[in-house]
Amino acid sequence: MTSIILIGYGAIAQYVARALKPLADVEIRYVLCREGREQAASEAVPGQPQAVSDVAEISGTVDLAVECGGHPALIQHGPSLLEKGIDVISVSAGALADEDVEQTLYASAKAGGSQLRLVAGAVGAMDALNAAKQGGLTKVTYIGRKKPAGWKGSKAEEILDLDKVSEPECHFKGTARDAALNYPKNANVAATIALSGIGMEETSVELYADPTVSANIHEVVAEGAFGEFRFQVAGQTLPENPKSSALTAMSVVQAVKQRLASIST
Predict the structure, then answer these.
(1) Backbone region of residue 208 per phi and psi (left: phi > 0; alpha: psi in -120 to 50; beta: other values)
(2) What is the per-residue pLDDT for 102?
């Protein structure tokens, strides 16, 4: 039996819990939430696991932590879990754009003999990008497109009048690190691509407000010794939360099942 602590109880966490519930060899024993929200968290997650607000409240064996709570959750709880020797699967690659956070997580995993695994999330082809890196990558570009309304609440509002965008307009060009730091709610993908490929500074990012698209478009273009590829995902969101990627939730489920599998691809 693999015992899990689920971090967060939003749309992605609930999707993951529902998908894992039928598995006989998996138990979500705890849900980690903010202090004062324990009852809501326990009730929101199928099976009503015990809700805690601090890693120190965990007793007994926990084999795996599954982080679905966003950057602050990984930053707050990731180091403690890793130091305890608990592997962490995380949706929050963008948090590692902060070099201090990256070093803290690295040191914690090293000290605990554990591993932080960042899921591919809303984008695909990271296995190909990781493989291509082994032989040498020369160029990686991520191009993200969302409807103008999808960028509301971000720095795009400082550059564009999102209510008046009538054709595709670019509001950001720069490195993956800058994209992840400036668009923390929208650019986990940029960080994932950078960490899978040639790094935060070398990965180029372009972000567009595009009224012609009907889904969130994520495109990866890579060149290197392997040749070149162009991969595109037109991603839909979870019905429970239009800001949460369905593929991100699915990638977490896949990561857990891959960990449990006797034969894995």
Answers:
(1) beta
(2) 97
The full set of domains in the chain, from first to last, is 2-118 (3.40.50.720), 126-240 (3.30.360.10)
Partners of 146 in beta bridges: 209
Strands 169-175 and 216-224: unpaired
Residue type, 205: V
Catalytic residue among 71, 77, 171, 218: 218
Instruction: Give the DSSP H/E element, type plus range, for residue 106.
Output: helix 99-112
Predicted confidence (pLDDT) per residue in 204-254, tens digit: 999 999 999 999 999 999 999 999 999 999 999 898 887 889 999 999 999
C-alpha span between 179 and 172 (Å, rounded): 8
| Active site (annotated) includes residue 171 | no
Total number of residues shown for the chain: 265
For residue 244, what are the CA distances in angstroms to 44, 70, 141, 220? 16, 11, 23, 20
- Reduced to 3 states (helix: H, G, I; strand: E, B; else coil), residue 23 is coil
Is the C-alpha dihedral spanning 249, 113, 57, 72 positive or negative?
Answer: negative
As a whole number of Å, the CA-based R_g of the chain is 19
- The reported pTM is 0.94
Q: What is the mean pLDDT of the chain?
A: 95
**The tokens of 36 are what?**
């004062």
Angle between helices 246-260 and 11-20 (to 10 degrees): 40
Q: What is the DSSP string of 196-239?
A: HTT-TTT-EEEEEE-TT-SSEEEEEEEEETTEEEEEEEEEPEET
Strand partners, 138: none
| Per-residue tokens: 52 | 């805690």
Q: How far apart are CA 7 and CA 26, in angstroms?
A: 16
Contact in structure between 67 and 94 (CB atoms under 8 Å) = no
